[in-house]
Amino acid sequence: MQNLSFDVSVTLVDGVNVLDVAPLVDGTPLQPRNSLVFDALTLLALGTTELPSEVYLFNCSCGVPGCAGLDRPARLFADESCVTWEFPASEMADRLDQGLYQVRGDVLHCRFDRPQYEAALHELTQRLATWTSSTGCRIWIGPGSFMDASDGWEASQTPGCIEDIRSRMREWRAREDWRERTWGELVDARLFFRAASGEVAALGLEWLADLVLEARGVPEEQRAVVIEAEVAPLMRQGTAAVEAFARTLSWPQFMEHACDEGPAESRYGEAWEHLAGLQAWPAGALSVELASSTPESGAI
Predict the structure, then answer these.
(1) Euclidean distance between the first and final Cα of the chain, in Å?
(2) 198 and 153, same structural domain?
(3) 137 and 66 part of one domain
(4) Maximum separation of any 2 CA atoms in the chain, in Å
(5) Whether residues 154 and 38 fall in one domain
(6) CA–CA distance from 272 to each of 83, 135, 197, 247, 256 (Å)?
(7) Backbone dihedral region for residue 281 (phi beyond 0: left; psi -120 to 50: alpha; all else: beta)
(8) How confident is the model at residue 66 (pLDDT cuts 50, 70, 90)?
């Protein structure tokens, strides 16, 4: 198995120590050209207790993975003896040191000794939390856009920053668990309206549910309960039930939040503006499509 360590470099910007943390595998930089930003705080927030998880360990400097051509996160998981990082080969093979990972299909993986891995994370946390130099102890760690000195924090606050990230991760996971439990196969499904004039409007079922309940005056803090108990079971009855539910919205309400899914060259053009300006539901066909883009029951 491999050993993990970290190199930390610093650039002084507006009186703040902007730290760049780079992972080393067996003492060698995992990302030799340093074209992406390593998300050290997220790694520290995960530790080993929050695994398995899917995260973008490497990211664009702005914090948006797609900006750097990244569409698939890394997968991290652990057992009693080792911790594994897996990366999509199609996106990362040319960005990581080829001598530091093994290839299995479209997956690159590094495997670390778990006790050594945990010790390396602890050492990095302590190092960041006690950072000091001749330029002071105010620091900032990406990814994300460093704007000015107000973005920095005292090094001693780093453990708190890590705990905040961990708390947000747990909240997100709880939300995702609820979505999977409540919506089942309809998670990320969308309702498509294909107008007789050729335009195509789409709206996610979860968003549709929230809009209808908002229109009914259901308080935001009560909507999750209503969705789980009433709305999601109703929508699982099929496209006809979804259509009836959707049509309780006015056409302007539906179109205010719908996306144009017509031909790319004509999206959000004059025809769409005309369609959005109608006051009543026009002639057209409705269908529900799952995240796999397979029609749930065809056009109505």
Answers:
(1) 57
(2) no
(3) yes
(4) 71
(5) yes
(6) 51, 56, 10, 19, 12
(7) beta
(8) very high
Is-cis flag, bond preceding 52, omega within 30? yes
Secondary structure (3-state) at 77? strand
- pLDDT at position 299 is 38
| CA–CA gap between residue 280 and residue 275 (Å, rounded) | 10
Neighbours of 153 (CB within 10 A): 16
Write down the pLDDT at residue 296: 44
Residue listed under structure tokens 């030799």: 32
The number of residues making up the chain comes to 300
Is the pLDDT at 300 greater than 50? The verdict is no
Query: pLDDT by residue (tens digit) across 265-288?
Result: 888 999 999 999 999 999 999 999
Q: Are 235 and 213 in contact (CB under 8 A)?
A: no
Residue 88 and residue 145 in one domain: yes
| Structure-token pair, residue 218 | 């259901």
